[in-house]
Design goal:
Elements lengths: L10 H19 L1 E5 L2 H8 L6 E5 L6 H12 L4 E5 L9 H8 L2 E4 L6 H12 L4 E4 L19 H16 L6 E11 L3 H19 L8 H19 L10 H20 L10 H16 L12 H19 L2 H6 L3 H16 L15 E7 L3 E2 L8 H26 L18
Parallel strand pairs: 1-7, 2-5, 2-6, 3-4, 3-5
Antiparallel strand pairs: 6-7, 6-8
Helix pairs in contact: 5-6, 6-14, 7-8, 7-13, 8-9, 8-13, 9-10, 9-11, 10-11, 11-13
Length: about 425
């Protein structure tokens, strides 16, 4: 299987996607509206002819098509670095389409020289524009939180700046941070009714009596029952019933460590954090799936690969299920994110954040932009200054995107008073 998929460009396909964008976005992502301020569009157009590295949050699979639309509004086209496994979705059809829209592949966890070379080449060209998602893969599925940023994105920008300055000593690359916030459309009554019906189906399958619990308590009860089942499945001794986060943490680590042992994962850190473990194992699964040659890795059959993927999806669900995330701000969006995790685990559905079915109810996408800045503010050819520059640029990106996330929280209001979990017995 081909390890690297280079970017292509089909003008007819780009025109077709532009023309059908509202319809495709509705069918594939159930997004009906994209909201961008006119002054932001004008600001972006001022950089139409500049080299640009565009970075945004990446909680779902909806961000790449939205960024494609942003490129059209700018009057330009972006190139994209996308996970190699995405090119094999839908028997390779997704790969054929996105490669002709400017995407090229990257294999996480290795020194993917072909991919890095392509990225540097895009940004070194006059007017070149590249999209990167600093949270990397897998996507979190949580719109109101950010995964730790991959430090390599700043280093990649510095390498591209090195290349650009070789041809033009005045060359620069504009860094444009963005943030996308999704809002569920519908009246409060419609949303409540749909969530209650969804909870009822889950409770019926799990033989749970909802009693007179409020909506938040019902979701927490469903989560607790699933947690107890997982503890039993993975032979985890019972811990304090009140320490939900500790118990769920033990489950996610048990799943990940079991997978690592079965596939003989090289350089696996048993004491690492769950996100690092998940990223490493997803990267190994991707390499095994595409037949990437590595003598350190154990060869797996198709059935074994499917088992690994299924277990990693379970771990993914448990990593992003956080009690406090829902309880602290029980908005419609967070309820639906929780519902997606539960349905993925209970029904074996492919998680929405990993390319599964679209949102239950229609959504609106709000796109925000921080102030762009030139990479030359942080870039240097001196080794020590360069290392410091990478660290400072990553911090700025994190602060900019986190700031936009915080400012967007008030676009949606809680359905239940935060912290109101009612009473377990009522």
């Amino acid at each position: 299987m081909q390890p690297f998929i280079p970017p292509g460009y089909s003008l007819p396909l780009n025109w077709t996607v532009d023309f059908l964008f509202p319809v495709l976005l509705k069918i594939v992502q159930n997004i009906e509206d994209v909201v961008i301020r006119p002054e932001d569009i004008q600001m972006l157009r001022e950089h139409k002819d500049d080299r640009m590295l565009f970075l945004t949050n990446h909680p779902t699979t909806a961000e790449p098509p939205l960024v494609h639309h942003i490129g059209k509004l700018m009057g330009t086209r972006f190139r994209y670095m996308a996970s190699r496994q995405v090119f094999d979705w839908s028997w390779g059809l997704v790969g054929k389409v996105i490669s002709q829209l400017g995407a090229f592949s990257v294999i996480a966890g290795i020194n993917d020289r072909d991919s890095f070379k392509a990225a540097r080449s895009v940004l070194a060209e006059p007017g070149g524009k590249l999209v990167l998602f600093p949270e990397g893969e897998p996507t979190s599925g949580e719109n109101d939180s950010l995964m730790p940023f991959q430090p390599g994105i700043a280093q990649l920008g510095f390498w591209a700046m090195d290349d650009a300055r070789k041809a033009d000593e005045m060359a620069d690359i504009i860094i444009q941070p963005g943030f996308i916030k999704y809002i569920v459309k519908g009246t409060e009554a419609e949303i409540r009714n749909h969530l209650r019906e969804s909870a009822m189906r889950l409770e019926s399958k799990l033989s749970i009596d909802p009693g007179n619990k409020n909506l938040l308590r019902r979701f927490l009860t469903i989560g607790r029952v699933l947690l107890e089942q997982a503890e039993k499945e993975y032979h985890i001794p019972t811990a304090s019933k009140s320490d939900f986060d500790y118990r769920i943490g033990r489950v996610r680590h048990a799943i990940l460590d079991n997978v690592a042992e079965k596939i003989k994962a090289p350089n696996y850190d048993l004491h690492g954090d769950a996100i690092h473990k998940l990223r490493q194992l997803f990267a190994l699964h991707e390499m095994l799936s595409i037949g990437y040659p590595d003598e350190k890795m154990k060869k797996l059959s198709k059935d074994e690969l499917e088992w690994v993927h299924g277990e990693l999806v379970k771990a993914f669900d448990f990593i992003v299920i956080k009690k406090d995330y829902l309880v602290s701000r029980p908005t419609p969006e967070r309820f639906y994110e929780c519902l997606a995790r539960i349905e993925s685990y209970l029904y074996g559905k492919k998680p929405r954040a990993l390319g599964g079915e679209p949102s239950h109810l229609p959504r609106k996408a709000h796109v925000f932009f921080a102030k762009p800045f030139p990479i030359s503010e942080y870039w240097s050819t001196e080794k020590r200054a360069r290392k410091t520059g990478v660290e400072k640029m990553i911090r700025r990106l994190q602060n900019d995107i986190q700031g936009m996330l915080n400012n967007a929280l008030d676009l949606s209001q809680p359905l239940v008073r935060p912290g109101d979990i009612g009473d377990e017995d009522h």
